[in-house]
Specification:
single chain; about 130 residues; mainly alpha; elongated
Length: about 130
């Protein structure tokens, strides 16, 4: 570790928690899908819209994370990305129509992609390869 030991450990723990938290909303979608499907009167295949939209926006934001890191810095990038994921969750909870529910998946992908790439970048530059694995 390149920094003082105690703050470095805390930052590493926070990064690990960030990685773990990235997967939680994805798992919840599968559990909630039967209720979502019934609420919006959808076919089973409509879930593909959510996966495709979130996947595309995840790819898009992770692709541009390097530029965003240069412009914003890691703190602002992670805060803004976390806010996007929080707005996405709120959008999923409050969406009155399927279109808004699906649009919330786009926000989730944008935020998650930037969090993932930003945390990877941070850990790779501040910790050893052992911590990356």
């Amino acid at each position: 570790m390149h920094m003082d030991q105690a703050p470095a450990r805390l930052l590493l723990i926070l990064a690990y928690l960030g990685f773990i938290s990235l997967g939680l909303p994805d798992a919840l979608l599968g559990v909630a899908w039967p209720s979502v499907r019934e609420t919006f009167h959808l076919q089973q295949g409509a879930i593909a819209v959510l996966f495709f939209g979130a996947g595309c926006s995840y790819f898009f934001s992770s692709f541009f994370t390097g530029r965003l890191l240069n412009m914003l810095g890691i703190g602002v990038l992670l805060a803004a990305s976390s806010a996007l994921v929080a707005c996405s969750t709120l959008g999923h909870a409050l969406a009155p129509v399927w279109t808004l529910f699906a649009a919330s998946a786009l926000l989730h992908g944008l935020g998650s992609g930037a969090i993932d790439a930003g945390l990877n970048h941070y850990v790779a530059h501040h910790f050893s390869a052992r911590h990356m694995t």
